[in-house]
Amino acid sequence: MIRRALFALILLVTVALPSAAQTPTMPSTQRYGSGLLDIPVAGVLPHLNVTTTFSGFWASLGRRIEIDAAGQPSGFGPARSDFFGDISAAVGLFDRAEGGVTVQSLNEAAEGGNIWGLFGRLRLWEPVDQGLGLAVGGRYLTSPTFGGPGFGAGVEYAPGRLGFPDERLRDSYSSGDGLGTNLSLYSVATAYLRGYDGGFLPENDMTFSLGYGGGMFAGGRKLEFYAPGTSNGWFAGSAVHIAMGERSQVTVMAEHNGFDVNLGAQVDWDGVRVGVQGLALNHDWPQDGQFSEYQKPKFGFTLSAAICPREPGFRCRPRMMRRTEPDTIYIPPPPPDTVLLGDPSGTAAAYVGQPASVCLATGQNVPIQITSSGDTLVGTPPVPIRSLRPAMTFAGTYAGSAFWYLDDEVIVFEGGDYGKSDDTFPVDCQQILRVGVYRGVPVFAVVSARRPLEVIFVPVQPGVWHRYERGLRRSPTSF
Q1: Residue 353's pLDDT is what?
Q2: Less Cβ crowding at N or C end of the chain, within 10 Å?
Q3: Per DSSP, what are the bridge partners of residue 50?
Q4: pTM of the model
């Protein structure tokens, strides 16, 4: 059954088409790829993007509870103070899936050895912009191994939600079921909403996630020392994503992972991420009677790096939701002021020209005529354009004299870097539509293009356009 489900999952990911979603960049979780602090979200990493993460937390107890074979408290052990670390790596596939590996409890002094695991998530739906996303996923962890007698021969231990090997956690007890936390399947929905942008407030987005799962999200809820505050498999979280510039983003998060309330923040600067967390804050603060790592508030941190092989310099610039409303591109622009209904000179031009058109920065074609001698005629009746200077100008805003255009600077647009191609050329306005503005100059794309855009067009002067390609690098000075 599990093999059939795995095959179906792989097949669905393989045939899935890339998505054009523009949702905010999610931070790195402590152990399981992208998400919040410890819970998954509906989004996945973009295709071939890779994240590597190291996380850790400190736990200190004046005494530590021990349990018997039935899972009941049997006394107290000695004091314990440890630092526990974890590493993980994740990769995005086809903009539809994300998978990775995790190694937990990098503590040579701890018994039980390292815990290894795999995790994956398949995005079933994600909105192009605001809206609701859906995903399903799973996590599989190996059981720790202890050399001592433990509860006796043949004991099968179970991994816990904090990532360190614990001889008190097992798959079954003499009094009934145990944790069953090796395999954790889940489903999750995430709502993506644009925040308020205006005045002194920076650009911001909000996300809200709600999910249900088994295994790690629900196992052990009958153990008093392990699972106070259980929600029986339900988990939820929210985050505010704040743009701090073109290269950085801050995410402030709160979540309930099925047992614990966690709060934290993570800074992302070009894919380098640093986060701090307060864990298990719904439990009692340290006191003389504290006896369980699972019931004690803890401090942790996360260090992560994201690598984007399809971006210039492999930099993963954080993205936010689009702010440019696409419906404005379907509204016809006002008629340009280049078509003259009379002959200001008082005499009609005695020229015969070939009909042509010029695509303006307003997104509209303007009819003109070209004579055999190279004169450009406009208006009815047609007159040479040179005779109308300087009173006549073409409508629209153009990049031809802008410093950033003359210096071949990279255009940063919708979270991507676009490099300048070699040549200019004419464009038919019926084949393009406006998708945004860069430094006051309108930006266009092919009508059928999907986001994220691979190519954009910038008007240089009336009838002359320049092509910019995502990730194109002309020279070292371009960056």
Answers
A1: 58
A2: N
A3: 91, 307
A4: 0.67
Measured CA to CA, the distance from residue 225 to residue 259 in angstroms comes to 12
Residue 219 has a CB neighbour count (10 Å cut-off) of: 28
Contact 159, 168 (CB under 8 A): no
Q: Record the tokens describing residue 320, joined without a space.
A: 């936010």
Q: What's residue 304's pLDDT?
A: 97
d(CA 467, CA 444): 10
Q: Tell whether the model's pLDDT for residue 337 goes beyond 50.
A: no
pLDDT at residue 28, rounded to an integer: 96
The residue with greater pLDDT, 337 or 444, is: 444
Nearest to 279 by CA among 449, 36, 1, 15: 36
Please name which of 398, 401, 370 lies closest in space to residue 465, comparing C-alpha atoms: 398
CA 196 from chain centre, in angstroms, equals 19
Residue recorded with tokens 């937390």: 57
Q: How far is CA 257 from CA 89, 115, 191, 227, 292, in A?
A: 21, 20, 17, 11, 18
Q: How many CA atoms lie within 13 A of 25 on its CB side?
A: 30
Q: Which residue pairs, CB below 8 angstroms and at least 24 apart, start in 216-221?
A: 216/139, 216/141, 216/159, 216/161, 216/181, 216/184, 216/258, 217/184, 217/186, 217/257, 217/258, 218/258, 219/158, 219/178, 219/179, 219/180, 219/181, 220/158, 220/160, 220/169, 220/178, 220/179, 220/181
**Is the bond preceding residue 149 a cis peptide, omega within 30 degrees?**
no
Spell out a b/e string for 9-29, using b for 16 or more CB atoms within 10 Å of the CB, else e.
Answer: beeebeebeebebbbbbbbbb
pLDDT surpassing 60 at residue 325: no
Is the pLDDT confidence value at 232 over 50?
yes
Q: What is the pLDDT of residues 1-49, one digit of tens each?
A: 444 544 444 444 444 444 446 788 999 999 999 999 999 999 999 999 9
